[in-house]
Amino acid sequence: AEIPGRFGEIDIMILSPGIDPKNSFIRQALLRKIPVAGEFEFAYSFVPDAVKRILVTGTNGKSTVTALTAFVLSAAGKNAIAGGNIGIPLTELLDKFKKNSVLVAELSSYNLEKHFSRKAFATDVGILLNIASDHLSRYRNMAEYAAVKKSVFAGLRPGGVGINGLSKPERADILKLKKDIYFRGNTMRFSPKALKKLTGAKELAYEKEKMKLLFEANKTNILAAAAAAFAMGVSAEKIRGAVYRFKPLANRLEYSGSHRGRIFINDSKATNVSSVLFALKNINRPLVLIMGGRDKGSSYKPLAGHMKNVKTLVAYGEAGAKIAKELKGKNKTITVKKFTDACMKALKKSARGDTILLSPGCSSFDQFKNFEERGKAFKKWLKNLT
């Protein structure tokens, strides 16, 4: 609601990413010609021109790619600074940039929205990993959401590189940008062959057993980060060594421990259906799956054909009833209200050799302030068991 008499005191209004620009307070500010900018948009205008920029977006995988890219660049001796949606606001990093810095920024669709300046974000490397249904309460439809994601390529500098994980039909309208974009579609999708075409380098070869990352679940993430590092002049050998040393981020298919012959995996960052689907496709073990939280408006039915390894589904929280209804008949399903009750039910219904997977497919806001807190609660519960 309007605060009488206060609009005259405002020079510019800065929005945090979670604030919907359709908010009535913001509309009132715009009617009064008060400039409105997103936090990332505002801060980005102060990044020195000499700083190289790598912008990473996609529905899933962007945090891992951002962190891995920055890690590889740092290991190669570059002054890489990671920020944005990964958890460090760009405004907090502005005093850290030097002429030789490389900014590696994770961008959600919210960060990519333009309010104050309609100019695209200038970048040396743009990465779009994938597009799947998410945040549909914010956008009118999938097409609008996809258009925001694809705008990561609109500001490529001369000689810039676009790394695109979309399939051929999805990427068609990007051609209109007439930028030097290297596509990853069909048989060339994020393949070593595609990287060779991009960089002229020899094909990368990795030994899975040397990796701390789950390789099958992170192939595209590794190759996207490798392509970005190549674009910054890092050799294949240095990339390979850094990839072997990189530790997985918390809450993203994170091995959390074992208890009584069960393995526990924390995938609390899986806040949409496509993330759960990704987990189900990449864990080939008997599963007890914990889903739930606050519903984001998407259907859970796309999971139905991928539940063959799920012995029991435990659905909790505000979305529990909807999840159970849409996946009914695919396995044994239990609904509970509280998160801790869901964890205990999952343990009770599991057996030796099973994996208990927390992959909620929902936001955390019904019982937690964010997905990180939910992941910590899961690991604390496990620690108390042992």
Describe this structure in a few short sentences.
Helix content is 32%, strand content 19%. By secondary structure, it is an alpha/beta fold.
Describe the model.
By secondary structure, the chain is of the alpha/beta class. The protein has 3 domains: 7-38, no CATH class; 39-245, UDP-N-acetylmuramoyl-L-alanine:D-glutamate ligase, CATH 3.40.1190.10; 254-385, Alpha-Beta Complex (Protein-Tyrosine Phosphatase, Chain A), CATH 3.90.190.20. Helices cover 32% and strands 19% of the residues. The protein contains 13 helices and 14 strands. The chain has a 6-stranded parallel β-sheet, with helices on one face. Strands 9-10-14-11-12-13 form a 6-stranded mixed β-sheet. The longest helix has 17 residues, at 215-231. The protein is globular, with a radius of gyration of 22 Å. 41% of the residues are buried.
What sequence of helices (H) and strands (E) makes up the elements?
EHEHEHEEHEHEHEHHHEEHEEHEHEH
What general outline do the C-alpha atoms trace? globular
CATH superfamily of the largest domain: Mur-like, catalytic domain
Radius of gyration: 22 Å
| Terminal residue distance | 50 Å
Mean pLDDT reading: 86
Number of domains: 3
Overall SS class: alpha/beta
Beta-strand content estimate? 15-25%
Seen as an oligomer or otherwise, the chain set is single chain
User: Percent helix among the residues?
Assistant: 25-40%
Features:
386 residues; six-stranded mixed sheet; Protein-Tyrosine Phosphatase, Chain A; six-stranded parallel sheet; UDP-N-acetylmuramoyl-L-alanine:D-glutamate ligase; 13 helices; alpha/beta; 3 domains
